[in-house]
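This follows on from our talk about sequence and fold. I would like you to pick a protein and set down its sequence and fold. Go ahead and set the record down below:
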Amino acid sequence: MKQIIKIFVACIAASVAMCGCNDLKEVNERIEDLQSRVSALETQITSLNGNVEALKVLAGGGTIKSIEQQGDTYVIVTSNGTTLTLKQGSIGIGNAPIMSIDKDGYWMVDYQDGKGAQYILSNGEKVFAIGQDGISPKFGVDSENYWTVSYDGGDTFSRVLNPDGQPVKAIPDGEARDSYFKDVKVEDSCLVLTLVNGDVYSVPVISDFYCIIDNDKEIVEFKYDEAKAYDVDMKGVASALVTAPTGWDASLSDSKLKIIAPSEPTKASVTIADSRTDVSILAISASGYSTIATVRVKISGSPTKDVPVATVKGADVTVSSVSFKVEVEDATEWYSLVLPSSAVTPAISDMMSKGTKHTGSSETVTFEGTEESSTYHCYVLPVNGDILGSIVYGIATSAQYDDRFAAYNSGKKIMVGSTAVDKATYGEAVHLTANATLPLDAKGVYFVDKDVVIDHSAATRPKGSVIIVNNTPGTRGKMILGNTIIPQVANVDILINGMEIAINKNAFTYGSATNTVHKLGFYDCKLDINANYFSATATLPMYNTEVIGCDIKTTIADFGIHDGSKGLNKFETIIFNNNIVYSATTGTFRIFRQGRASIKDAAGRVEIKNNTFYNITFSNGLCSPASVDAFYMESNIFAYSAANTSYQRCLWISTDDDKTGKTAPVAGYPAEGRIVNNIRYNSQRVLGCMVPAERLGDKAWYATDYKEIVDAAENPFSTADVATGVFVKKADFASYGAQR
């Protein structure tokens, strides 16, 4: 821009040779006046761009470490080490744009033309100012004295247009304008900025709190798999959280920030959109102030080795065996390990010490000795020399007996979820071949033929375990739950397998201190939910609940375990795997809803894996206990037919700390767990965990394995039919969501 203006001045000076002597004085005066205006304009643009950048940083939150006043200029150092320059006095001549940021974080501009503030537009869209994706417009002036603006750091400029679509003059006939800021002052330990349009911004000044990364480069280039370390100067930091783009690894220890580049361009990038370039440290003071220090990173060069990948799919099954088809790419070897679906996901060390080693690019892995209708995961770790791929798994369920009632009577074990049911343990069974009204007031095992309807309309009080099972593989009986089931003894199992169920009333309720459930389970069921499937009326234990392989249509505000105002403090496990949960428009769904109930007895585990959630919101938490020992959430899809704007978290620990904003670690937060490989589509507000990072304390699993749910680059479904409940995933999303 300076060069354009100086060329313009030079052209006028060159014309002197073509003028008469009488005109020379006039020409010189014109040149001097223009040079003066050019000098003022250059000063104006420098000040304007400095003020715009400062406004972006200060409006985005954070704190200030120090302020130095130099005449009408303020030199500000933020708590992350960024140096800003604010100019309060006149910033030059002309109608300099007055920038501001609205309450939603978008840039607005007032051209001082009497038309007031308006949104800055880029390609017809409003320009976001704050946060990770915020940008700072950079202003200039073209050779015809019109304002120009750049949204790419100054690489390209286009003319600024007013609301009428006309370019805006930078040097009109008028005189110098007033200052950019109406007032700049420090009061009550805050820098208070007042723009000439009246907008006010206030930023805390805290000299003893900062987090500064020793890095003077705007962007740091890494080779694949390269590691670099940076000194971090910190003071007054009570806790810190490090985040990095997908595929990068970053950690903070002993005032050192260590960054490791990916081994290769992440293959997940086909499926997951992650445009971040910042490795960031979110630092929190003991008083709750925060600042974010960043290192911008990029990859250069090529990987020395390909990262191996694997795919695993369930293949042939019998009653006593399951097989998996495994294919690998770029692998010199790979390890397989088949485990029951209820087992903990193995670590890399487990895969290499307990798994079976293979070579070759394709093989069928068979596991013998299964019980009927048992679900297994085949985990695979691909290896390419010293490069390890990600552990992936496929799911397969062993076949059922052709006539389950006959097999049961002959002494065979019938698997209902993870529970082995046999005649020796549970006694005689009933084979239902016609519609029946069952009060379910006694313990029993029921085998139900296809389309046979069980009508449960009266409140019942079973005196033992109740197990309802489809009799023929691939078929479902039907069940109407029109009233509650109230156990009358301790440690009752209520297990339902292979049924279409209309839940029209809170289905399972406790009434006295002796009424306890050992396990409540739904397996391979189709559920039409119009009420909660469990509701307690007293402070009583419910030890285990499982919902596996179900299709769930919900139309209510809550679905799941809840106990109103009571405190169920004896939960051990909640397993919610391989389900499709959907609503025609938007439905609310919660797996567990009780802020004061703890999931801490014995294993104290919550597992939410390979579920498809479609048009489902959970504003108060998908799972919201008072405390939990372990929380695992993996490979889920959260998708919406229309943009979802509600803010929601999957794990919500509800404690006094959440209400008061204390910075002490939350005592009820899980000591172990993992939130990984989850994707969202048509929403940027579905996140993994509600508890803010500053209150996680020293929970090491969060620092190493916690990931927010990330955006899918495209719609993961080729078919999403909420009328029929049919959801067909695209190939790139095969490992996410329900495995059917």
Notes: The chain is about 10% helix and 40% strand. The chain has five domains: 2-204, 210-299, 309-397, 402-540, 560-714.
